[in-house]
């Protein structure tokens, strides 16, 4: 029996949405919560013959039965002995590795793409080499270099180097050496000049592009519950760039965030390999889950 596997909790609205869509398209769907492993689910691997099995809710599936996998969010694995240290977590991750790296399974996206997403300094430069324009950016923890960058750009934002938190504006007190010396002792930072006046999000699904302009007064449109959304078509050169970035980053699908200035210049911000799409789909009517289902089944 061919199975489409979803990594996540089907109680989550986005997981439920894609599971329903896949079942409507005739697929057998199963959900794997990594946080349930190894307490509730199990894995078997025979390296001498290269056979693997996933034991999930009283069912067993050969790795060869799993045709594709959709990642939404990879949760931490749990164990009754979690307090004994990190060694057990490493044991669990190592046991899962034959499944997570199985070449016969179509991963959307591959785990390597998820790992690469955490290396945003390299990704930004990679995007530039693929033809993208990015905002002026400083990444590091040298107070003097950070201050020089802030003096060159009157309006700036900051965010974590790896991501995982909302973008914040750089305020006046953060532009002083005393503050930078104190803050940058704790962690490096990404500083960017604030560019553009408009946000555009593009979902890249294979060769299909679905884009919308997101009008908001918020620095990060995700914070605005009343964001205004308008479906747009990208210029051909930006559409081709979006596909190059998706492929170049090792992804099959992603969401790319752009900023656009008054002259029509597109600035690349990031490409997310595990984007939220449910709200975007509800607001725009664009068939993100349908196109994602096609990628998983074909």
From TrEMBL:
Signal peptide: none annotated. One of its GO terms (cellular component) is cytoplasm. One of its GO terms (biological process) is SOS response. SUPFAM superfamilies: Glutathione synthetase ATP-binding domain-like. One of its GO terms (molecular function) is ribosomal S6-glutamic acid ligase activity. This is ATP-grasp domain-containing protein. It comes from Alteromonas sediminis. The lineage of its organism: Bacteria, Pseudomonadati, Pseudomonadota, Gammaproteobacteria, Alteromonadales.
